[in-house]
Design a protein that fits this description.
Elements: H1 20-30, E1 36-37, H2 52-60, H3 75-87, E2 98-101, H4 103-115, E3 121-126, H5 130-138, E4 142-149, E5 155-156, H6 158-163, E6 169-175, H7 187-200, E7 203-207, E8 231-237, E9 250-256, H8 262-274, H9 280-283, H10 286-291, H11 296-300, H12 305-318, E10 323-324, E11 333-334, E12 337-338, H13 348-359, E13 361-362, E14 364-365, E15 377-380, H14 385-405
Parallel strand pairs: 1-13, 3-4, 3-6, 6-7, 7-8
Antiparallel strand pairs: 2-9, 4-5, 8-9, 10-12, 11-15, 14-15
Length: 408
């Protein structure tokens, strides 16, 4: 019989956060091995529970959640998001400018499908959250990765962005706070990015899912609050700030210059209608989440669990010979670098597979985030401190053996 093959559109798509090394880890677990997983930012797995008041609102309203709702989302949920956009100082956001989706992931895909013709280009950070690259490619577009400079605190390289703009460039993607680096973008940089978008008539897509997970008195500025003469799409949701990843409840806010984007917005409306609506039960938690007590700040205080875990994991990783690591200002990840003179890695996926096999620790290689060199990996610092200490100790032992094997 003729072989059934996957679509050629998937040739340049990867999602190694749940990739082949994870599959190997699953088989090892089936064989009885205990794996320390530092690969996925899934708060519930590590004991970070959704606030009780959000859960109770969802439960209380289940009887009203069995039917479809408006394709853009429940009125009360969108009203709460509109108020949140006002708190973030995003101007002129109305109810019709808000789309609720099955997580930010669905909305990213919808936004790209509504925009791109074959061959259109989108500027995406390197490293990136790989869904962005996948969504562009699957929509027929071309992902053009601009460098984020590790030596400058992983901030976007403005000259590199400018060098990659051409007449097919449609949009600029920001991930702020950044996954996987934990970088937080200052207002001055955001203004320069706006000017680039203004000069080249680009849409700015801003993924801000970690905007409340901030450390050391850092503050987040939503780029859409800084201008109203270009089009912005701002993404956020319940997954991280409210530890409700499984609820799959995210939103997109359209703001800025909308008059010249009426046709594009009509495309978003069409795609939102085609999937009928987002998950209704979880939408009943949005109003309570945004308007209630923000317990995430208890976790990011100096005495908070997330802050303490970040500090411990960062210090332990930075103490390993030949390993350097930017201290993240936000989010829940570390993106350490291996000195290529000490660790001459040619294949970073093979490296993390060897780490898994030898030390039973699972991380994600830097190339899984479209990073250009095989010299980084991402660590999730959600496990408790004892597990983090054990995991980093195992990583250190593995790298010690690697150094010995490759000593010159």
């Amino acid at each position: 019989m003729r072989s059934i093959t996957k679509s050629s559109k998937l040739a340049n798509v990867c999602y190694d956060i749940r990739g082949p090394v994870l599959e190997r880890a699953r088989r090892m677990e089936e064989d009885g091995h205990h794996i320390i997983k530092l690969n996925i930012g899934n708060p519930a797995t590590f004991g970070f529970e959704v606030p009780e008041e959000i859960l109770q609102d969802v439960i209380h309203n289940l009887s009203a959640a069995s039917g479809y709702c408006d394709s853009k989302g429940l009125f009360a949920a969108r009203k709460a998001i509109m108020h949140y956009s006002q708190e973030k100082k995003i101007p002129n956001v109305q109810m019709d400018d808000i789309f609720i989706g099955n997580g930010v992931s669905e909305l990213v895909v919808l936004a790209m499908q509504a925009l791109l013709n074959n061959g259109d280009e989108v500027l995406i950070p390197m490293p990136d959250y790989p869904l962005w690259t996948a969504a562009v490619v699957l929509s027929g577009g071309v992902a053009r990765h601009y460098v984020c400079d590790e030596e400058a605190g992983w901030l976007p390289d403005l000259d590199d962005i400018r060098s990659k703009i051409n007449d097919r460039t449609r949009a600029l993607v920001l991930i702020n706070p950044n996954n996987p680096t934990g970088a937080l973008y200052p207002k001055a940089l955001l203004l320069e990015l706006i000017e680039i978008a203004r000069q080249h008539q680009l849409i700015i897509y801003s993924d801000e899912i970690y905007d409340k997970i901030l450390y050391d008195d850092a503050t987040h500025t939503s780029i859409a609050s800084l201008a109203d003469d270009i089009l912005f799409i701002t993404f956020n949701g319940l997954s991280k700030n409210y530890r409700a990843a499984g609820f799959r409840s995210g939103w997109a806010i359209v703001s800025g210059e909308k008059n010249h984007a009426e046709d594009y917005i009509a495309g978003l409306n069409m795609l939102a209608s085609m999937r009928l609506c987002a998950n209704v039960p979880s939408q009943f938690g949005i109003q309570t989440a945004l308007g209630g007590y923000q317990s995430i700040y208890d976790l990011t205080l100096p005495t908070g669990r997330l802050k303490r875990q970040r500090d411990v994991a960062w210090e332990l990783l930075a103490d390993i010979p030949g390993v350097s690591c930017y201290k993240p200002q936000a989010a829940m990840y570390l993106f350490p670098k291996l000195d290529p003179k000490i660790y001459p890695v040619m294949d970073d996926q093979q490296l993390i597979l060897d780490l898994l096999l030898e030390e039973k620790v699972l991380v994600v290689q830097g190339s899984g985030f479209n990073w250009m060199n095989p010299d980084h990996f991402r660590v999730v610092f959600l496990p408790n401190i004892d597990d983090l200490k054990e995991a980093v100790s195992r990583i250190a032992h593995f790298l010690h053996r690697y150094r010995k094997r490759h000593a010159t």
